[in-house]
Recover the amino acids of this structure.
């Protein structure tokens, strides 16, 4: 069984502030609770790759700018660059 990658969002807060948007706005757009977005920013939770990619698409910022793979996950160099 393939393990789905999970991502934290350490740069999302700055990107949202630069656009005048909030965690609540993102949460409402993708249908999750605002706390999930806040926890992903602080590293307390991680987001699935599809959800992380939807957030990047939604705010128009490259995926690799917003998200990082939490330590301890197995991700090769090609996957990290994607």
């Amino acid at each position: 069984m393939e393990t789905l990658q999970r991502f934290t969002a350490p740069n999302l807060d700055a990107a949202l502030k630069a656009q005048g948007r909030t965690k609540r706005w993102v949460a409402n757009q993708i249908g999750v609770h605002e706390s999930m977005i806040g926890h992903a920013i602080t590293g307390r939770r991680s987001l699935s790759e599809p959800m992380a990619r939807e957030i990047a698409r939604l705010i128009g910022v490259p995926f690799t700018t917003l998200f990082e793979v939490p330590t301890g996950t197995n991700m090769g160099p090609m996957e990290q660059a994607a």
